[in-house]
Amino acid sequence: MPKLASFQDLEDLRDRLRSRRDPDESGPPKIAVCAGTGCLALGARKVIDAFRKELDERGLTKKIELKETGCPGFCEKGPIVVVYPQGVHYIKVNPGDVPEILEETVLKKRLIDRLLYVDPATGARAVHEDEIPFYKHQTRILINNNIKIDPKNIEDYIAQGGYSALTRALSGMTPQEVVEEVKRSGLRGRGGGGYPTGLKWDATRKASGSPKYVIVNCDEGDPGAFMDRALMEGNPHSVLEGLVIGAYATGSAEGFIYVRAEYPLAVENARIAISQARELGLLGEDILGSGFNFDVRLHRGAGAFVSGESTALINALEGRVGEPKPKYVHTSERGLWNRPTLLNNVETWANIPLIINRGSSWFSSIGTEGSKGTKIFSLVGKVNNTGLVEVPMGMTLREIICDIGGGIPGGKRVKGVQTGGPSGGIIPQEHLDTPVDFDRLTGLGSMMGSGSIIVLDEDTCAVDLARYFVDFLCDESCGKCVPCREGLRQMRDILSEIVAGRGREEDLETLQEIAGLMRSASLCALGRTASNPVLSTIRHFEDEYEAHIRDRRCPALVCEQLISYFIRPDLCIACGLCRENCPQGAIYEGEGAEGESGAIMVIDQSKCSRCGICFHVCPPKVKAVERVSGKSSPSSAPKASIPSPRDAGKEGERR
Questions:
Q1: 337: left (phi over 0), alpha (psi -120 to 50) or beta
Q2: How many other C-beta atoms lie within 10 A of the C-beta of residue 590?
Q3: Is residue 232 a contact partner of residue 270, using CB atoms and an 8 Å limit?
Q4: Is 218 helix (H, G, I), strand (E, B) or coil?
Q5: Which of 326, 254, 312, 323 is nearest to 284 (CA)?
Q6: pLDDT tens-digit profile of 450-463?
């Protein structure tokens, strides 16, 4: 394809591409298969290969387009296949379904009922994406094109209107006008800090010194978060276009895309996108004949969680260890190689083309007073519909969990949600009607963060969850500053003692003192926010801490050392599954309940390691294994049927 030398060249190319891609009912058939990481893990590559083989055998390769696309969001229902032009949406497709899809839906335009989504509440089948509750309650402006675009084909992006915002900016706006448009939009950084994007751009533009740099931060590392990954895998050109516009607005000639090492598909698709944009003249010298020069380099991160912090990321780009450094001045003034640097995360950059194309007033009409636009969240945990969701700022947590997420499996109660990644907080169920935006979540002791929402049900222990996140952060801390390094270790040790039943009354006060020191004295944002899981759980679930410390009891029946397992003789069917699977050999055959004949299984408490395997392998219809918090036996079990540990020595005689 020849290099585009002018704005008109780009528009002419777009017209030619659209003429070959008629989207109406008379257009040629297309098959889109999600090839995002989630669907690939569920077998999408085999589905794609099956389609290629079937099309080849039928001689239809040139008549029916097969497209490998990005993630449309409903990850747990993958592999996802959409047949165009009808837009028929199939879920959980396997290679064996391919011949039928091709024959019935693509060629004969007939539906395959078993592959359609069925609403568990109403039993209704959904044919199109917008009929599925998971999708219809969202406002998808960033990820709506993921299922329509082959991320490895720049033509797909251009045909959907891609790089038209770049044309608008370079041909009709001054750099300062671009900055002002971003300011008026009210866009705030989506990486976690929520700083007004336009102000950061303006500061970089006005900063003295050259050269200036622009950077995409794709070092997303929060447990349960995959928003940036999905955008970079599914629509890398939207991020790249935003980056070029930002470079033009701030006076930069060189940029970097920093991608987490654990995202190989994102690395691959970003590299291809850069290469294709360069070949077309959308990167390099004299872009589209505008006189503006700009190019991008891809940098693969080393995988450290802390490298997502701006100064640590800049250190890594400079070839040093990815450790944070004190922010005596903003990166907009002295960043990469001590030069003015504009750094935003993937989602922030992807919003820029939308703002330039549709206008700041359109963007600011979405969301709340202080938080404009939409936000992409990863909805995971104890919720029926997990995946990637995009909603307007201000939607409540309850709407996200119940309307989009479909509620909690098994009809269990929502205990709360953990937002903002490992440095976020746990919000209890009584605050689920809180609108989600930057300021309200902070007021509850949590934060927006990069956008992960982990749903917790009644079986989650708040104390153990806080310990889990502190343990994660303890391992991921760079260790450079004492408050973070030692504070996290001390908190982990205290929490470990509490969940083991060895907590002390003064532990809560000690945890809060350590948290206060970390917040005021840590070097970077990781250390200053690392105490959020602890402080928020103490604030909202103090009764659970007291149960662990005073009563040596875990109300959620999670903390192993505070749980005992017993087998109810009135329910045991002596199937022996628990005995066969017990790793400690702690289960033996007893004599049966008083007044009853037949052997039962008995747990030797002196050998039991409280692993819970017996509880999980007991047949669901039997449920003879009972777990209780503390060391006492269950009141519902006949006491005579549960031998004490000293009776375990009779096991050999019974055999």
A1: left
A2: 23
A3: yes
A4: strand
A5: 254
A6: 788 999 999 999 99
Which sign does the torsion angle of CA 458, 459, 465, 467 carry? positive
- Residue written as tokens 């939009």? 185
Q: What value does the CA radius of gyration of the chain take, rounded to a whole number of Å?
A: 28
Q: Can you point out the beta strands (E) in 136-259? A: 213-218, 254-259
Q: Residue 21 — very low, low, confident or very high, per pLDDT cuts 50/70/90?
A: low
Mean predicted confidence (pLDDT) in 251-266: 94
DSSP 439-497: HHHHHTT---TT-EEEEEETT--HHHHHHHHHHHHHHH----SHHHHHHHHHHHHHHHH
What sign does the CA torsion over 632, 637, 639, 642 have? negative
Residues 6+ apart with CB under 8 A from 109: 86
Q: What is the C-alpha separation between 488 and 498, in angstroms, rounded?
A: 15
With cut-offs at 50, 70 and 90, classify the pLDDT of residue 595: very low
CA nearest 27: which of 108, 84, 68?
84
22 pLDDT band, cuts 50/70/90, is: low
Q: What is the DSSP letter of 551?
A: S
Contacts (Cβ under 8 Å, ≥6 apart) of 100: 112
- What pLDDT, on the 0 to 100 scale, is given for residue 201? 97
pLDDT of 594 strictly over 60: no
Token readout for 542 is 């103090």
- Give 601-635 as a DSSP string: EEE-TTT-----HHHHHS-TTT--EEEEESSSPPT
- What is the identity of the amino acid at 365? S
242 CA to centre of own chain: 22
Kindly tell me the burial class for residue 165, based on how many C-beta atoms sit within 10 Å of its own C-beta (0-12, 13-18, 19 or more).
buried
Q: Which DSSP symbol is given to 221?
A: -
Beta carbons of 116 and 125 less than 8 angstroms apart: yes
Tokens of 41: 């893990």
pLDDT value for 425? 85
Residue with tokens 């970079």, as numbered in its chain = 232
Which structure tokens are listed for 651?
């096991």
**Better pLDDT: 506 or 445:** 506
CB 227 within 8 A of CB 450: yes
